[in-house]
Amino acid sequence: MLSARESEGSQFGVAADLDNVNDNIGKRLDETLRQRRHAKDGDYNIEVLLGVDDSVVRFHGKEHVQNYLLTLMNIVNEIYHDKSLGAHVNVVLVRMIMLGYAKSISLIERGNPSRSLENVCRWANSQQKANPNHSEHHDHAIFLTRQDFGPAGMQGYAPVTGMCHPVRSCTLNHEDGFSSAFVVAHETGHVLGMEHDGQGNRCGDETSMGSVMAPLVQAAFHRFHWSRCSGQELKRYLHSYDCLLDDPFEHDWPKLPELPGINYSMDEQCRFDFGVGYKMCTAFRTFDPCKQLWCSHPDNPFFCKTKKGPPLDGTECGPGKWCYQGHCLWKTSEQLRLDGNWGSWSKLGSCSRTCGSGVRFRTRQCNNPVPANGGQDCPGVNYEYQLCNKEDCPRRFEDFRAQQCQQRNSYYEYQRTKHHWLPYEHPDSIKRCHLYCQSKEMGGVVYMKQLVHDGTRCSYKDPYSICVRGECVKVGCDKEIGSNKVDDKCGVCGGDNSHCRTVKGTFTRTPKKSGYLKMFDIPSGSRHVFIQEDEVSPHILAVKNQATGHYILNGKGDKSKTKVFIELGIEWAYTLEDDIETLHTDGPLHDPVVVLIIPRNNSTKSTLTYNYIIHEDSLPTISNNNVLQEDVHAFEWALKSWSQCSKPCDGGFQYTKYGCRRKTDNKMVHRNYCDADKKPKSIRRMCNLQECTLPVWTAEEWEHCTKSCGSSGYQIRTVRCVQMLTDGRNRSVHSKYCTGEHLENRQACNRKPCPAQWKTGPWLECSVTCGEGIEQRQVRCRPSDQCDGEKPEATRVCKRPPCGDGPCVRDKSIFCQMEVLARYCSIPGYNKLCCESCSKRSSTLPPPFFAGAAEMEDAMAEADHEMTPTHQPDSTSRSRGPQANRLARAKNNKPSAVTPGRGKTKGVNSSQKKTPAAGRPYRVEASHNQLHLIQSNPIAISNSSTATHSSDRAAKTPERHAAL
């Protein structure tokens, strides 16, 4: 699977002062010691920027293009994991950029591959992250387009040996289906230094076997390998590509199924290969739909095309069956089990609040695919959220929970009576995100049977944490989810109370008349407010909001009992004990309040003591109060710590780090409190004087064997070159530092014969097109002839619709009389077109579906081979990608196509009397009740050392390029 960097490291640089130098030394050491995450020693990681132009995005659709591209890059990664390469190369996707229309057409110049590649490479370099430790810093750029950037049939273009170069480590690739993965792997191979097989080397004999670097790529999903020359050429240059030596970081790409075809039907793969409207060809039944993917368009269903490759492994080929390595196989119960996977994220929704910190969501569904047959559900959550509109509301503070309760005043009845509903915080923390309201008239608490709105504060004791879908989410004073930052005593986020001031006083008044008597004001922003009567008094304490005039305690002459209540968006605690009143709140006050008394005896004085904490910036607004001005804090520079040693061993240096300390409590505070001119000079000392230990090979436990029996089982283990550090930690170093024999990381296991089992193939087509016939399948005992149990049936009766067609009158094509086409009489569609000729030959031809199963397989294989055009070298034209069949051109310059014939034909390429164009390959096309012979032009093989190979090519560039 793909992997990517997960975080951004530190960049070492020259600092202005010694403290910064010390910090950077520590960061550099941390960077040196960072642990490998996924890469094994000896692995090379090509960290890729994938650029995709607008033509690709529009073709696949914005909702589906990312998963398609991830699948494509996974296939590229698996191609480089093939053991024939002889090196451990990982293709690591670190970034994906989808371009808009205007940018796309500015990069690709039709018919000018050299200029197009130059534009793409420059664009990729402009996207490079300056910091090499950035999670999106790339080593190589891969650009995909569906635009034609070169002559007809050109599939790829790349500089040779350009890897790690700022503007030459890039490839330009034509995307037309999953087989494009071989084009991408081929072009990236050129950038790594590989040449075409058979051109300048002796590996031409491997091209027909599916070598990736063949001039004409014939590799397919079930048959590909790297030639011995590719491996040798890679090793020649690989050690010089330093950018491939760093470890990859994790990246949060969507998880994909192990077999890529699970998510893509044959119809979808046909659309990718040949364009909109193409689906799996159903004109003629094939023995095994997984052997080759044949496609046709509904406008001409008998005109079938193929890229001569199978569908992806995992593609459904029948109920309970899927394709695997070119064969349609039954799924086992474990394989039928389909684990769910997440679809793409939706766009972020609207914010739940317009101000004061709301929440917005994005969601995803477990439908890619939906879990089936006992498969596991998708792990994790189906939604994500983020804070939004964090700024404070510009108008007067409003309690969001209180608003939700007030909305029920007009309609919600309790005990058959309407109430004025006040906010209520449930004492059980689990229920604080459920809406509870308290009746102002009766004091009763009622559950409103719903959750509070997203963005509502969980508790009046915490002004920042909020409710999200019924759960309390911790939010710091910096308004970041999960933050542990808190306000100090006067509301400074992350502060140390150094800006806080305590205001304390005692106020005495004797009432002279009835009515409310003002005592003093408490300003907005005050915290930890405490008000208390000094002595027993008959008067009643009252408090009102100065901004609105609304009484929050003992309005209208009321006399409250001890209670905890919510007002002004904060929690208050009022106690009446032994006729002495006390009022307390942690605040902060969003509006100023007025403290009053309600006289009960005009001759008795009332004395109130108060104190609160406020920020020093608010002191000028306070009058007639006693401010406790603490002594000015004295600060001093103190040794804080030593920097990390610059070396883990063999002697390094470390430096003193000084911090600012408050003398009164020895607490470290911000450096701005200390005089910078009095800061001591840093002291340097030696550290880690012990000798470095020699790195040694270490091995982890062997993993489980890949097979339980047979001749191909193996198991692997991780082998690393490790150096022991003095603190007991280990660090992975490059394998070149380890001496001695490299430990084995792979060994054979469970190499024993598997028990014999009956193996059955798919049922072949019925021997008749109407009426009653017979169908057969292959039944074999594998791996020996000693199977237990009854042999499954190999023949059964099949029934087709009654034969109602009239008698055959005549052939519907002049080509029906060609003897070379007699083998197609076994195909129902052809038999109907050429009924007269086929009936004449029926006495001499063997029954088409009664031959032995092994002979059928051989015939199928030979038919596939013989229907492939013979390609001769031509230095003036381009080599083609895996789309060889589709890109072959006829004289009328239209794409050639074939019908998926089966059975063996002799002399197709040699008969000069029977074929319209002797000496050249041809193909058979059945279309609209007509037969056509289409002559195929040879597909030429390109020269790997130049950008273009035709006589009319553009001016050559100094660098070497390779075209495909």
From TrEMBL:
* Cysteine pairings via disulfide bonds: C121-C170, C164-C243, C203-C229, C270-C295, C281-C304, C290-C323, C317-C328, C351-C388, C355-C393, C366-C378
Q: Report the SUPFAM superfamilies cross-referenced here.
A: Metalloproteases ('zincins'), catalytic domain, TSP-1 type 1 repeat
Q: How is the cofactor bound?
A: Binds 1 zinc ion per subunit.
- Where does the record place it? Secreted, Extracellular space, Extracellular matrix
**Which parts of the sequence bind Ca(2+) 1?**
E47, D139, C243, D246
Q: Where does Zn(2+) bind?
A: H186, H190, H196
- Cofactors that this protein relies on: Zn(2+)
* Protein's UniProt keywords contain NAD: no
UniProt KW Hydrolase keyword: yes
Q: Which residues form the Peptidase M12B domain?
A: 44-248
| CDD domains xref list | ZnMc_ADAMTS_like
GO molecular function terms here? metal ion binding; metalloendopeptidase activity
Query: What Pfam families does its record include?
Result: ADAMTS_CR_2, ADAMTS_CR_3, ADAMTS_spacer1, Reprolysin, TSP1_ADAMTS, TSP_1
In what ranges is there compositional bias, type Polar residues?
869-882, 927-949
The UniProt entry annotates the active site at: E187
Identification of the protein by name = PLAC domain-containing protein
